[in-house]
Structures are given as C-alpha cells and as structure tokens.
Amino acid sequence: MYQPINNKNIKTYSLYDRESKVKSADFGKPFDVSKGFTDFLNSLPKILAAGDLVEIARFIAKAKKTEITIDYASPAIDLQNSKETLKAMEEFKGLLAQMYK
C-alpha cells in the first residue's frame, strides 16, 4: 500500500497574483485562410517552437533578399558579401542550436 500525502504544509497562492512568463499577446490568433503566408506566420504564437519557426522563416526571407545562399549541410559563402553571409549564417546556426537543445 501507499501512504496518503500530507498536505498540511502545502501553500497556495492566487493565479491572479502570480507573475506569468507568458503574456496573452504571445498566444496565436485565428488565421484567415484567404490571407498569405506572412499573415499565417504572424498568427502563430510567439512562444516555443512556433516562435522559432517564425524567426527561421524571417531569416530565410532576409537571406533571399540579400542573395545569401543557405545550404543546410555546408553553408556556402558568397565572396562578395562574405561578412554579411558569415554573420547571417552564425545567426541561423544559433537559431537552429536553440531549437534542437
């Protein structure tokens, strides 16, 4: 058999008084399917994996605009923009590292 839990020393507090790490603005919003992909990304929650997905999508869009090559296996470096490319790839590697911790 098991011993019942002694709850005499358990302290409670109001959820209204408790500081939360997540704000209601961080939650996702309904998505209108007639809108575009950007609106879809903006409708996702700003927390957990959805937040990472949004950051990666924005990074990929930025890379496309600046013509930075993204090769997931071995990052290619455009010699014309080598400083920008290296900085962008470091940002991207950091995002991936955070996702796969």
Can you tag this structure with a few keywords?
101 residues; mainly alpha; 3 helices; 43% helix
Q: How do the helices and strands line up, and which of them pair or pack?
A:
Elements: H1 37-43, H2 48-65, H3 82-99
Would you give an account of this structure?
This protein has 101 residues and is an all-alpha fold. The protein has a domain at 35-99. It has helices at residues 37-43, 48-65, 82-99. Helix 2 runs antiparallel to helix 3 (82-99). The longest helix has 18 residues, at 48-65. It is elongated and about 65 Å long.
Mean pLDDT over the full residue set: 76
Q: Radius of gyration, Cα only, in angstroms?
A: 22 Å
Q: How widely separated are the two ends?
A: 40 Å
Structural class: mainly alpha
Largest beta-sheet details: none
Helical fraction equals 40-55%
How many β-strand stretches?
0
**What coarse outline follows from CA principal-axis ratios?**
elongated
List the secondary-structure elements in sequence, H or E: HHH
Percent of residues in beta strands?
under 5%
Oligomer: single chain
- Output the number of helix runs: 3
Return residue spans where pLDDT drops below 50 for at least 5 consecutive residues.
Answer: 75-80
Produce a short descriptive summary.
Helix content is 43%, strand content 0%.
